[in-house]
Amino acid sequence: MSSLKGTGLPTVLGLIDRCARRLRRAGVFFGHGTDNARDDSAALVLHALGLPQTGDPAVYSRRVGPRGVRSVDELIRRRIEERIPAVYLTGETWFAGLAFHVDPRALIPRSPIAELIERQFAPWIDPSRVGRILDVGTGSGCIAIACAKALPRARVDAVDISGEALEVAAINVRRHRVGKRVRLLRSDHFSALRGERYDIIVANPPYVGRREMSGLPPEYRHEPPLALAAGRDGLDSVRVILREAGSHLRPGGLLIVEVGNTEAAVRRAFKRLPFLWLEFERGGGGVFLLTADQVGG
Ligand SMILES: C[S@@+](CC[C@H](N)C(=O)[O-])C[C@H]1O[C@@H](n2cnc3c(N)ncnc32)[C@H](O)[C@@H]1O
What we know:
Elements: H1 12-26, H2 37-48, H3 57-60, H4 66-81, H5 86-90, E1 92-95, E2 98-101, H6 113-118, E3 132-136, H7 142-150, E4 155-160, H8 163-175, E5 182-186, E6 198-203, H9 210-214, H10 225-228, H11 236-244, E7 249-258, H12 263-269, E8 276-277, E9 287-291
Helix pairs in contact: 1-2, 1-4, 2-4
Bound molecules: S-adenosylmethionine.
């Protein structure tokens, strides 16, 4: 592998460009919080140098000494050789305008649902009537916490079957000081929520089928399999949510679920449900919305 050593004193910007070229040449996969080599490289270089990810132009013209170059070199080497997603190397990512701690105990936040939360779920519900929200499969807690921040009067229950994911969520709940309004619960889907009803149930459940799982780029192997794999056809979790969400929604409530590229399989499997497939300005898709009436609430 080419090294960054012995090339004089580069600027931060020069290092970012050079590392981006290395990432491209190595053919690493982007899609875990960044979608291109330059953003991936910038996150890694700034992190390795202990510089803020603020976009301050003065940062980019700084010269980097040999120790800094070695730190960058080491981080880029791990990104390329071990195929660790950049976000797991930096330990931080952004979701709905908020910074989240992330480590391999939880999926890297990247759901397009962020955009909907930032809009307070407009135009689908009047935000002033949202008292209770449920996030099924909360992982790092990103959706639950972003909901609590966007809707300051709402109380949010966040469930996950993984104790490890809930540990990461707890770190983020503390970080964003929403412990009074976000309740973390270990639960297999709705099992710990008997009798509870919500205005919005939101979920980004696992939805990768068996065959697709085995063909995923190596970066995905660093994420918890529980967060991705959902049986033979990828619908195991979605089936449970569609069967049980109705009895946990208040009248007029909404069910919003990301199923990604399993959208076609969901449409085929539930032909009679009148899914509304949402569109996003910042990209991404495969998110459906159903009302309480439509899911039998
Ligand atoms: C795709 S990840 C989504 C994480 C987070 N909501 C996000 O958007 O980044 C799916 C999450 O569902 C959790 N999960 C998987 N099976 C579950 C089940 N039976 N009940 C509750 N949560 C489950 C996983 O542990 C994982 O945290």
